Structures are given as C-alpha cells and as structure tokens.
Amino acid sequence: MARRKSSPPKKGGGWVYIGDSIRKDGSKKKYVGMTRRSPSIREAEHISEVRKKNSKTWTGKGKYYKTKTAFWSSNPEKAERTLHEKMGIKPKKKTTQKKRTTSSNRTTTKKRTSKTYSKKSTSPQRRTNRTYRRRR
C-alpha cells in the first residue's frame, strides 16, 4: 500500500525585522527581512555570515550587523514588501526555478539530461526509480 504524501504545512505569521549593516567602506545601510523563526536566531545567522571571509550574502559583505527592531505580522511577506517601498530599499531578488515540462513520451528538461524513457520501454517500477528519483 502506497503512503499518501502529506500536504505542506499552512503558512502562518512570521517576524519582520529591520537591521543595520555597516559596510567595509564605512557606509551604513538598512536591511529588511522576514523569518518564521525567532529574529534572534536569524540575527545570529547574519552575524556568522559577517565573520566569514568570503561570504556571498548581502549582510556578509559588511563588517557589522545588528537587528534594530522586529515585529510579528500575520502576513510577513506583504509587510516586508511594504517596508521596502516605504523605506526606499531595493527588494531582494527572488530566484525562480525553471518549470519542468513533459510531453507524451516523458522527455526531460535541461535539468535532467541523463536519459529519456518512454512509457512503453520500461516498466513503471524502473521508470519511477530512474526518472523520478530527484523529482520534487
């Protein structure tokens, strides 16, 4: 008997926080972010990025980070967007994943380039193990 996948948890509220980042050239910049965890945990993550030598994150490019204020919001994504607009801060770029498309013979996209399996050539058991192993 196959196990039924559970539905993803419903998104609830979260924290929106504003922090200061002092850059290596001495300029002071504002950072707005949101988290569903505690703001102090998120601040610790930002501080650990500052300590790294070759950090690729926005806060990690500075030499100091401190969260100034945080507040609870029932819709933190919207609150974060609103703060970005009001404070004149450029919002973070959202990364989007390329959607997978399938045709009638189950061809793969650029992400899965190993092999193409048709429905007729392999049994459903083998096709599941090979083609859909990394599918999410």
Labels describing this entry:
single chain, 136 residues, 2 domains, 24% helix, globular
Low-confidence stretches: none
Helicity, in percent?
A: 10-25%
Count helical runs.
3
How large is the radius of gyration? 22 Å
Number of strands: 3
Plain-language structure description:
The chain is an alpha+beta fold and 136 residues long. It has two domains: 74 residues; 36 residues, no CATH class. 24% of the residues lie in helices and 22% in strands. The chain contains three helices and three strands, in the order E-E-H-E-H-H. The chain has a three-stranded antiparallel sheet. A hairpin with a 4-residue loop joins strand 1 and strand 2. The longest helix is centred in the first third of the chain and has 13 residues. It is globular. The relative contact order is 0.15.
Write the layout of secondary structure elements.
Blueprint: E1 14-23, E2 28-35, H1 39-51, E3 62-73, H2 76-87, H3 124-131
Antiparallel strand pairs: 1-2, 1-3
Summarize the structure.
With 136 residues, the chain is of the alpha+beta class.
